[in-house]
Amino acid sequence: MHRSIGALYHGMIDYLLVLILVIGPGVAGFRGRQAVLCYTLAAIHFALTILTRFPLGVLKHVGFPMHGAIELVVGFLMIVSPWISNFARGVLSRNFFVAIGLLILLIWFLTDYRGLRRTS
After folding, report:
1. How far apart are CA 115 and CA 120, in angstroms?
2. Which residue, of 8, 90, 113, 118, has the fewest CB within 10 Å?
3. 52 has which bridge partners?
4. Residue 53's domain spans which residues?
5. Is 117 within a domain?
6. Total domains in the fold of the chain
7. What pLDDT, on the 0 to 100 scale, is given for residue 114?
8. Is 119 a member of any domain?
9. Helices 64-84 and 32-51: angle between axes, nearest 10 degrees
10. What three-state secondary structure class fits 5?
11. Whether the Cβ atoms of residue 68 and residue 45 lie closer than 8 Å to each other
C-alpha cells in the first residue's frame, strides 16, 4: 500500500480540517446540536493535533501512530453520527458529517503514520 502523505503534510491537513469543522456549519447552513458537535470535534481535533509528536505538534505527547488510530475511529464515527445522534433527516448536516468522515478516512489511508516516508 502506498502511503503518500508524510507527517508534515498531515499536520497541515489537520489544521485545515479544524478550520473546516469550525466554519462548516455556517457554510453548509446547519445549526443546533449538529453545529455544537462540529465545534466540539474541531476543538478535540485541534487538541489532538497540538498534542501529537510530529512536525506541527506543539506539546508532542501523543505518538503519531496513536494519532492515526484515533483519526480512524473518528472517521467512522463521523459517518455514522447523524444516525447515532438522530439528525440524519437534516440533509445538510448529515451530508457534511458523512463527507468529513470519508475525507478523514481517505487521509488516514494515505498517511504514513509509521514514518517510513520521511521526506514530508
Report:
1. 9
2. 118
3. 62
4. 7-110
5. no
6. 1
7. 87
8. no
9. 170
10. strand
11. no
